[in-house]
Specification:
By secondary structure, the protein is α/β, with parallel strands linked by helices. Helix content is about 65%, strand content about 10%. The strands form 3 sheets. A 5-stranded mixed beta sheet has the order 4-1-5-6-9, with helices on both faces. A two-stranded antiparallel ribbon has the order 2-3. A two-stranded antiparallel ribbon has the order 7-8.
């Protein structure tokens, strides 16, 4: 087996152009596919639960009664809504993959919003957003859609908050009436009036009265405060963003989109190199009439399969190790987890190599094997990247089963867990099982190979 491996390495050494095309094409296609992940569906499916009682849905904005639920209509123009009645139902839609995300409006939103408009300090209203982060691209689609819509609502509300704030500040400076919760309407003296009263009281005192100095300090404070009064930090926060968003990841990875694109590029390169090399090198043995001589006494069919798997795995592992190291340095991955990266790359390369040998055994000709590997690999990669909620639930279940039969999806999951943390054992075992299954299929295909 060792001499057989050396023979194949010599063949590759004599064909540098072929090796260069193989490596360059796989990297180019994978990087393009990774960059293409920056676009997605224009209308994601979002579960929506409005927990505000109907009788509390209206708030006073600048003297007008406005139905707060009208802002949901803006959101629904950008998403496909699934209306549910409870928070639990919304989260269940996300967990099942029926919805890409969920937006929950708590029952106290309008009450807190009214308190914000009245500057009563009741706390900023908060809406809840839930994601299933099995795909960072999917998470970003929903985040961008909901965030942009809430920004529009915040802009409309903040204009009213600013007007209310300006009115209160004017009362504080010049005096007037203010309606306060529980207490009701009260008269505010105002800083200007207070300064006038203090100055009048000070003027009526004798020149040597000790109270004049204290009153002068109070007068100066009132004047400076009136001239330089500014909004406090809580009011500034409420003006810039009256409604807060609380985001919760229901399940899945916390990988960034750049890390996800790097993972897709690395696993894609691994797939192309291992499949094309393993399928082509095995088929080459038959085209060169070497297969019969090899199994005639030099090696067994099982050893031949193992050698081709090892050859393809070594090439894919070497390429993807260098590739991941470069990408990791560019996007700032944690190299302290690099031993886990290498483990995933090794097991994944073997799984793809075994799949390639199985394809080569079934095709039996180099051109047919290469075409078959290429034709199979692209749909497998595309199906594996389809996020839950992007298609009907029944269709997604079928896609999930099909993609689970090939190494791309578990390879992505394993590499994501190695890079960002998470369950690594299950996808690694999945890859190992696929390597054994494809190796067995490759061994069976050699019965008709001669």
């Amino acid at each position: 087996m060792r001499w057989l491996l050396l023979k194949d390495l010599q063949i590759l050494r004599r064909s540098p152009l072929l090796v260069g095309v193989l490596v360059g094409y796989s990297v180019l296609v994978s990087l393009v596919a990774g960059l293409a992940l920056s676009s997605g569906p224009s209308k994601p499916t979002v579960a929506f639960a409005n927990l505000v009682p109907p009788e509390k849905s209206r708030v006073a904005l600048g003297g007008r009664q406005v139905d707060a639920t009208k802002y949901a209509d803006k959101l629904f123009a950008k998403v496909i809504p699934i209306r549910v009645k409870t928070r639990a139902q919304a989260i269940a839609k996300v967990r099942s993959g029926e919805a890409l995300g969920a937006l929950v409006v708590p029952a106290d939103v309008t009450e807190k919003l009214q308190g914000t408009l009245g500057l009563s300090g009741a706390g900023r209203p908060t809406v809840e957003v839930y994601f299933n982060a099995d795909n960072p691209l999917k998470r970003q689609f929903v985040q961008d859609t909901i965030t942009s819509t809430l920004a529009e609502a915040n802009q409309a509300i903040s204009a009213e908050v600013l007007r209310e704030s300006a009115r209160y500040l004017n009362v504080i400076v010049a005096g007037g009436k203010v309606a306060l919760p529980i207490i009701g309407s009260v008269d505010i003296l105002g800083l200007r009036n207070a300064q006038t009263i203090v100055d009048a009281a000070r003027a009526g005192l004798p020149a040597d009265a000790p109270e004049r100095a204290a009153l002068a300090q109070v007068s100066r404070f009132a004047r400076l405060a009136a001239d330089n009064l500014d909004l406090s930090k809580p009011i500034l926060a409420s003006i810039s963003s009256p409604v807060r968003v609380k985001e919760t990841i229901v399940a899945g990875s916390k990988s960034s989109l750049s890390a996800f694109a790097a993972e897709a590029a690395v696993i894609g390169s691994m797939m192309f190199v291992a499949l094309l090399l393993a399928a082509g090198m095995l088929a080459l043995e038959r085209e060169e009439n070497a297969f019969g001589r090899l199994i005639g006494g030099l090696v067994s069919r099982t050893e031949l399969v193992a050698e081709k798997v090892v050859l393809a795995a070594l090439a894919a592992f070497a390429l993807t190790t260098v590739m991941l190291g470069i990408l990791g340095a560019l996007i700032g991955l944690d190299f302290g987890r690099s031993p886990l990266w290498l483990m995933v790359l090794a097991v994944g390369s073997v799984a793809f190599g075994a799949m390639g040998v199985a394809i080569g055994g079934a095709a039996r000709e180099v051109r047919s094997a290469s075409l078959a590997a290429f034709v199979v690999s692209l749909p497998v990669a595309a199906l594996s990247l389809v996020p839950s909620g992007a298609v009907a639930s029944g269709v997604y279940d079928v896609i999930h089963v099909i993609s689970a039969a090939f190494p791309f999806r578990p390879g992505m999951r394993a590499l994501d867990a190695a890079i960002s943390g998470g369950d690594l054992l299950v996808p690694l075992l999945h890859l190992a099982a696929l390597a054994l299954v494809f190796s067995a299929l490759a061994r069976l295909s050699l019965r008709r190979f001669a």
